[in-house]
Write a structure and sequence with these properties.
This protein has a single domain (about 5-125), classed as tt1808, chain A (Alpha-Beta Complex). The chain is mainly β and about 130 residues long. Strand 7 and strand 8 (about 90-95) form a beta hairpin. The chain is globular, with a radius of gyration of 14 Å. The protein has a six-stranded mixed sheet with strand order 1-4-6-7-8-9, covered by helices on one side. It has a three-stranded mixed sheet with strand order 3-2-5. Helices cover about 10% and strands about 40% of the residues. It contains one helix and eleven strands; from the N terminus they run ββββββαβββββ.
């Protein structure tokens, strides 16, 4: 991503204004064309990332997670990836209702945002 100057990846210390709420995805990606010429904001991004990644903990409720995913799409996110380590699954949300579930035997791609990106999920779901 850095080599191709597609954009920037951020960790769980980056705050985004998502509608009326502030959200901190576990991982996020912002396309280079959306990063202001003056640089990254110091405190909060006033728009949704292009990609939001949420790692689900066993204590999180389904309704709470689904509500956050809908908020991201309402704010303009292109995709959300929901990772459930307990079940070794990654769900790609193309919209709040259009999804694709991948398992540790699959390869993750994201041509819409990250052309040529490929990640065998066996590399992240390590026992």
């Amino acid at each position: 991503m850095k080599k191709n100057k597609l954009g920037r990846v951020y960790g769980d210390n980056t705050l985004f204004q998502i509608g009326e709420n502030k959200r901190i995805p576990d991982v996020s990606f912002v396309l280079a064309k959306k990063i202001p010429p003056t640089g990254e904001p110091i405190d909060i991004w006033n728009f949704a990332p292009d990609l939001a990644i949420k790692v689900i903990s066993p204590s999180e409720t389904h309704n709470k997670v689904e509500r956050k995913i809908r908020e991201y799409f309402d704010a303009g996110v292109t995709q959300v990836w929901k990772i459930v380590p307990e079940f070794k699954t990654l769900t790609i949300y193309f919209s709040p209702t259009e999804t694709k579930i991948l398992t540790e035997n699959d390869e993750l791609t994201c041509e819409e945002i990250l052309p040529n990106f490929r990640l065998p999920l066996s590399e992240i779901f390590i026992d």
